[in-house]
Amino acid sequence: MSGAVVQVRGLRKRFGATLAVADLSLSLGPGEIFGFLGPNGAGKTTAIKMLLGLVRPSAGGGRLLGAPLGDRATRARVGFLPEHFRFQEWLTGRELLRFHGRLLGLGAGALSGRIAALLARVDLTHAADRRLATYSKGMVQRIGLAAALLNEPALVILDEPTSGLDPIGRLLVRDILRELKQRGVTVFLNSHLLGEVEQTCDRVAFLNHGRIVLEHALGADRSGVEVEVRADGIDGEALAALGRIGGVTRTADGLVVRLPDAERVPEVARCLVTRGARLRHLALVHTSLEALFMQVMGDEARPG
Amino acid sequence: MSRLVTMVQLSLHEALRRRILGAALLGALAFLALYVTGFHFVARELSRHGPASILQRRLVLNFFTLAGLYATNFLGALSAVLLPLDTLSGEIASGVIQTVAARPVRRTEILLGKWLAYWLIAVAYLLTVAGGVLAIARGLGGFQIPNPALGLALMMLEVTCLVSLSIAGGARLTTVTNGVVAFSLYGLAFIGGWIEQVGALANNVAARNVGTIASLLVPTESMWQLAAHLMQPPLMAQLHVTPFSPASVPSPAMVAWAAGWTVVVLAIGVRQFSRREL
User: Fold this and answer.
1) How far, in Å, CA of A31 to CA of A187, rounded?
2) Bridge-partner residues for A226, per DSSP?
3) What are the phi and psi torsion angles at A75 (to 5°)?
4) What percentage of chain B carries pLDDT values higher than 70?
């Protein structure tokens, strides 16, 4: 695990009587887009703050880009967009980026070019010299994203980067995340928008009560599919034949066949029909991240 | 060092954009406009009522100049507390500070950058108003106080104490609590200074000691008392004919104490901010 971009073990944070993060251990590799999920108050933002050195862990520790958590020099290689994306609203968009660039130690020449490119990338060139106080919520979020990418970071930590964005803004964020992945940048994404996470992340972790309750590789899940089958007259021979195509599980009203990919679905139908079974229902089963989230978090995640 | 300079520039920019500088300048000009009007009438009355003795004339001009400087000192103290009051606590409360502190910048650089910027503003404000008062006194009354540089330096030290108190408090307290604490401490020093003066005039050792302890806790008022003593002709200072002539003159060691106090307050602020969970 020496090549891990983020490596933390037994991270714990207590605020007085409140245990915000109970025991957090995780590891992120280079170029990975990692989704950090959990209900409000699960400890996600506190965990991010510990990674960035904004909050000191009560116990445990770890490394970010090979350096201990909180290392100042390492922060020059990390991009961060905080949850409520509040910035000095009396600055213009360009001034905000210049200020952050100077804190990052970027030279004036390189910084001007970088600022122009990023303003264009987040579609804010037209508003670059307007004060942030006049920006819409989505515009502030996009300028915050540009600020997070100023230093061409090796690790980008985004806390709810798409909340408040319109569909076009979300598409922009998704495209940027894909570009980052192509460049080998690791992205730590905290989001409540499970659909967004599902489309962009390689792996997710579900956090509840300050503890990771499940890690789930989305990439691996996409490579396999499940088919729900309801038919009459399925005999032993048919079941054995299905077993050669994929994993078969009996359910209350039929079968679920696990296949390596969706290309093999017609084989399931052919296998049953040729063996005399009367096929009544055959459908792909898609377990959404939302369904998985509810399954993992249980009834307590439901309001009311 | 470059990041410290960046923080100073950002804070000066903030003061400009949030119209803090403009409001301070406008306030200074309004004060000086009123002062020049008052001084004009005083100078005219002195001329109209014939040849007052040189002593009487100096007494009146000394009183009016010291009154101007006293008001300047008070305005400087208010500015020193109010101008930087929310620069740190406001950014902590809003979360703005997270984006700054997540950069490769030391928290010491953030705090000292803000301190330096607001110290420059508060001192510039003080020197502008005090310089105006002295220029008016000289231009309209032909009166010049002794030791102006030394007196202004002591007033600057008072402003430095209060800017440090306001910034350091912001590292730990909310804006409103910080304001309450800073003004309470300033008030404590103010009333302590007067208790000391009354104690000295009444030869009451206990009262003097109470005042001295208050001055040791918060040395702002003692800086003004010493400045007021030095900025008056020795005879006027000895006569105690104006409220600006301290009966108990703070010792020069108090200057070193105030400087040390400022360093300790700033160090506490840096430590608090460095350990603060953002």
Assistant:
1) 7
2) A258, A285
3) -65, -20
4) 98
Query: Could you give the CA distance from residue B198 to residue B243 in angstroms, rounded to a whole number?
Result: 11
Alpha-carbon span A190 to A174, nearest angstrom: 13
* Chain B interface test: which of A100, A102, A129, A151 (most B C-beta within 10 Å): A102
Cβ–Cβ under 8 Å, residues A216 and A203: yes
Task: State the sign of the Cα–Cα–Cα–Cα dihedral B192, B195, B199, B200.
Answer: positive
Asked if A156 and A187 touch (Cβ cutoff 8 Å), the reply is yes
Q: Which of A3-12, A53-62, A208-217, A290-299 is the least confident region?
A: A290-299
Mean of the pLDDT values across residues A23-48? 91
Phi, psi of A26 (to 5 degrees): -160, 165
Residue A301: count other Cβ atoms within 10 Å of its Cβ. 15
Please give the model's pTM, rounded to 2 decimal places.
0.84
Confidence band, pLDDT 50/70/90 cuts, at residue A1: very low
Q: How confident is the model at residue A236 (pLDDT cuts 50, 70, 90)?
A: confident
Give chain B's contact residues with A (Cβ, < 8 Å).
2-3, 6, 10, 13-14, 17-18, 94-96, 98-106, 277-278
| Cα–Cα distance, B267 to B108 (Å, whole number) | 9
- Cα four-point dihedral sign A240, A242, A247, A253: negative
Which of B174, B154, B121 is CA-nearest to residue B223? B154
**Alpha-carbon span A262 to B179, nearest angstrom:** 66
CA A133 to chain centre: 29
Q: Which one, of B189, B188, B172, B167, lies nearest residue B257 by Cα?
A: B189
CA angle, A279 then A282 then A284, to 5°: 165
Give per-residue pLDDT as tens, B204-226: 999 999 999 999 999 999 999 99
Please tell me the distance from the alpha carbon of residue B95 to that of residue A138, in angstroms, as a whole number.
18
Residue type at position B202: A
- Rounded Cα distance between A26 and A9, Å, is 7
The encoded tokens of residue B19 equal 């119209």
* In B18-53, alpha helices (H): 20-48
- CB-based contacts of A291: which residues, under 8 Å, 6+ apart? none
Q: Does A24 touch chain B if contact means CB atoms closer than 8 Å?
A: no
pLDDT in tens, A143-191: 999 999 999 999 999 998 887 778 888 888 889 998 999 999 999 999 8
> Is A188 touching B (CB cutoff 8 A)?
no
A-B contacts at Cβ under 8 angstroms: 72
Could you tell me if the ipTM is greater than 0.95? no
Q: How many CA atoms lie within 13 A of B33 on its CB side?
A: 6
Q: Is B36:A114 a contact under the CB 8 Å cutoff?
A: no
Which of these, B55, B240, B252, lies nearest to B157 by C-alpha position? Answer: B252
Nearest CA distance, A132 vs chain B (angstrom):
12
The amino acid that residue B143 corresponds to is: F
* Residue A172, C-beta contacts closer than 8 angstroms, at least 6 positions apart: A122, A123, A142, A165
DSSP letter at A229 equals E
Distance, CA of B105 to CA of A75 (rounded, Å): 9
